[in-house]
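Progress against Task 2.4 (sequence-to-structure conversion) is shown through the following example record, which the project officer requested during the mid-term review.
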Amino acid sequence: MYFEKSIGVFMGAFVVWGFLMAMLFNLMLIGFKAKKDFKLVLVSIIMFISYFISDHFFGFFSTSDMYLTWFIYDLVTLLIILPALTIGKSKVSPGVVYVIIGLSLNSLLFLFMHLDITVQGNREEWWLWSVYSIGVNVIDFFMIVVLIVDKDIFGFITLKNYVKHRVTTHSSSFLSKFSQNFQIQQS
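Structure tokens generated for the chain above:
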């Protein structure tokens, strides 16, 4: 039990340190005028502050409602990030998109754990607990990485653009074929 708590504390500290490094890195790039994306800097600052506060107060929330508290922290963080995206005219960078996806997935995992342990009263380990344990840490790590590299590392944005292009191309060709067939039948 002590070993598991120690790993949790060290992982929490590592994640907060990672978000601190991502924030400082982005601030440095802005300071050197190597990057002009203020949205990415703003999101990295918000992420560091959010994770610092939630990790710093971990001891106060070490109850069965801990997952609900972390769920609320992620929702509040998302609610702070989303309006910040409307600032300026620049496009949203891949790093910001991945942070929004990561926060959404983490909040779902926190909610599922809250529902399982607190609401359902489950005390027996099952696959959700393993998915949660691995998933939250991996997602946090990838959010740190994308804040630093700011690239579409998994190809989600490329895939979204491809699907959007195919849908608009096929839907317009489908509509034109449909309208041609409809006009032929009316004649």
